[in-house]
Amino acid sequence: MHTLSAYPQPSVTVDCVIFGYDGKQLSVLLLNRKEEPYAGMWTIPGGFLYLDETLEASADRILTTKTGIASLFLEQLFTFGKPDRDPRGRVLSVAYYALINPERFELSAGNMANDVNWFPIGQLPELGFDHNDVLKTAIQRLQAKATYQPIGFELLNPQFTISELQDLYECILDVKLDRRNFHKKMMASGIVRPTGQKRLGEKNRAPELFEFDREQYNELVKSGFQFKI
Amino acid sequence: MHTLSAYPQPSVTVDCVIFGYDGKQLSVLLLNRKEEPYAGMWTIPGGFLYLDETLEASADRILTTKTGIASLFLEQLFTFGKPDRDPRGRVLSVAYYALINPERFELSAGNMANDVNWFPIGQLPELGFDHNDVLKTAIQRLQAKATYQPIGFELLNPQFTISELQDLYECILDVKLDRRNFHKKMMASGIVRPTGQKRLGEKNRAPELFEFDREQYNELVKSGFQFKI
DNA sequence: ATAGTTAGCGTATTTTTTACGCTAACTATT
DNA sequence: AATAGTTAGCGTAAAAAATACGCTAACTAT
Questions:
Q1: Fold exhibited by the domain B4-146
Q2: Closest nucleotide to B185 by C1' from CA
Q3: CA distance A128 to A33
Q4: What is the pLDDT of residues B51-92, one digit of tens each?
Q5: CA-CA distance, B229 to B220, in Å (whole number)?
Q6: CATH number 1.10.10.10 is the correct assignment for the domain at A156-222
Q7: Which nucleotides of D are covered by protein (CB under 7 A)?
Q8: What is the spatial distance between Cα B198 and Cα B190, in angstroms, rounded to a whole number?
Q9: Which residues of A touch B54 (CB under 8 A)?
Q10: Residue B3 burial (CB < 10 Å; 0-12/13-18/19+)?
Q11: Known Pfam families for this protein (chains A, B) (predicted)?
Q12: How far is the C-alpha of A209 from the C-alpha of A160, rounded, in Å?
């Protein structure tokens, strides 16, 4: 067993579920494939792994290529490997998922313009490969993770109101939360820092703006703190 | 992009962290490698993926080969892929972890006798490849999972006392729990079913024997129940 | 000036978690 | 047969966390 080539080698792609939140709904970025197989169908962005890059670097490369921005949150999701998931042969997919703020980038223009689009997670098309499975897994993971890790912040602008944060969590978790208790919980958590500024210009009382206090969060985690919605 | 062979293909192994609990401590099953690289070092059991089997089937094959028994709990852990993790070339490892009851099998005799052994998770040797990382990830996952899914039952005999269950959780989570509150919580959970029998023969009051009520657990999960230690 | 709206604070109630006392039931010893 | 030693099982009080919801403040639009 000294030589690797004695064993059959599968192909390996890295695919990346990219979540974005526009203030109203949670969406994922999909690509309309030009090539066979599944030409004309929507798929999760992905590509073949380079032999000299780490899995995470590969996911980051795919993300940056498609969105032009780096994600603050990029995490391995699952490796999908059913023998028949790609008609060309045995292809494993190491899937990642990322959270980005779609306000910070524009879908790249030019030849890609019609080939990339956001789809709300409630209105997904039929996808190529086993990507519907991948997306389902990603949404479940995001929901589970959101309840015990403050990952939602990656999806918002650096400064946000508590109501915006609550809307986001209600959207991710698909639940209704009490406005006042949510406010209290966030204040007590110690991981949001008031900026002293307000958001004026809307037709009601101007809400205070906060930012995520990452240093404080890391401190709290070290001393055994567990975030909880 | 119609042909897979245009892209370089890594080798892929499936490696399996096998957890066992003997009533006193939580251990993992390790293999002493005979071949290079890392000959003479302890490693997690694993092998190259066959091109016509699913990842899970491959993990199950490895598990069955090494222990002779099937696991009730087998779950994908993470895919490890640092470019230099195997000196022979690019090798990805899709890692799984399994929970088994070591009382139900004996380490296979014969040529394997000195090559397979249980190591308590607190006394791990230095491992070949990046298997120390794999094990660290597996232990963290087991601890996290144990608090919100009743996976501990896989490690015990079908009939167990509440104290045995508590000892196991204390061992997995590395905490001390109050005996009376733990008892109360398990009774209230509805997922342990009294057998009506007691374990006699020990030098104190005979404790009642319970079994895991998987059907009831599945019912509860369907209606939104969340297990919680 | 006033109406409409969401923000922010507070409080009472319910539920869950924690701490811990007491008796029961078994075995081993005398 | 009585008694001591041990863990099992049940109960209760106190503390903490989650929930429900009222009230006033501060902004914009008319």
A1: Nucleoside Triphosphate Pyrophosphohydrolase (3.90.79)
A2: C17
A3: 9
A4: 999 999 999 999 998 888 888 899 999 999 999 999 999 999
A5: 16
A6: yes
A7: 5-12, 18-22, 25-29
A8: 19
A9: 81-83
A10: exposed
A11: NUDIX, WHD_NrtR
A12: 5
